[in-house]
Amino acid sequence: MNNAVLASDSTPQARQERGQRAVFCGLTSIVWLHRKIQDAFFLVVGSRTCAHLLQSAAGVMIFAEPRFATAILQDKDLAGLADCNEELDRVVGQLVERRPDIKTVFLVASCPSEVIKLDLGNAAARLQRNHGSGVRFVEFSGSGIETTFTQGEDSCLQRLVGELQADDSGEQLLVVGTLADIVEDQFRRLFDALGIANVHFFPGRRADELPPVGAGTRVLLAQPWLGDTSRALAARGARLLTAPYPLGAEGTLAWLKAAADAFGVSADRFDEVTAAPYQRACRAVALHRERLAGRSVSLLPDSQMEVPLARFLSEECGMALGEVGTPFLEQSLLAAELKRLPADTALTEGQDLEPQLARLREARPDLTVCGLGIANPLEAEGLRTKWSIELVFTPIQGFDQAADLAGLFTRPLAREQRLGGFQWN
User: For the whole model, what pTM was predicted?
Assistant: First the structure.
């Protein structure tokens, strides 16, 4: 392990760890991507393990027909005894015939398909020629090799950036990162009230809702795991706005302020538009702060949301931060968040699982945010946990969701109280 000092003396120091990791793979991101892009189908080219992961993560009921599936690689495929492309063409043909409502098919690479060097880029081009313009084929990687589960979205959106039309005709705001429809609608109303009229959300609700991009594009990230996507947009001329993420009352206010400043919104108008929802959010979070203030929390590396969550829990909920681990520390994407963390925060980039668990057991925080695979064993040891994947699946951005976000952390502690193992002071 070695220490790396961050951008300034006022930010925490990050310790890097490299070793055994415990995270889901990027295929998990299909669960929220397919909910957002409502006319797209995600076809994973992978193993039965990939299929089981998706079914478990999505909680698919047997009578539902979701817009994702797995083209399963058999043993003979993996051994090179069969032509995988022939089987892929057959499966896609059945899909297109059965689901005429699907306008875009994402071919999603997995660890098995990447290990056998199956070229899904060429496959997408071949399928496009075979099926014409009625359906579009796009490939991206959801492999879990050296990545964490949220990076599947980053890979998907980075691939789509190449299809955006160039437009340097004027200024526009591009909000990047999958948001629940209700959250998107709330933000759109706020931007309209601020007078920022040319606003696009990426990804959109339909696969063909691709925003333009150019020198006048200002990018406001809604999620902190979109490093490759933001770099691809910058290469197309867009400029990234530095801001905290819209988690909690303070985070949302600062996020909106970054957009307002970039588009010349006056301070008076900004205050007029945001004052009421900001105050409502503060009052709502305060009810949870009464239960969370002074409690200790540790965050293990899993989703890349750990730094913004730590800022929210410390700044708005009064929690004492233990170790804050994150799989990757994207300095350019987290600069505004890092400045708002306590300077003595124990920040870790990467993971070496066993030593990290040993530190956790010694510290015994009141609450641990971690991956699903680690949570149950820790619960058995008497440590209360919150699944980090739930924080990705749940709408938590914006003023109106601030109380919901705080409630995700009070519930595990309240549950223990009801069971008689915890007493509030």
Answer: 0.91
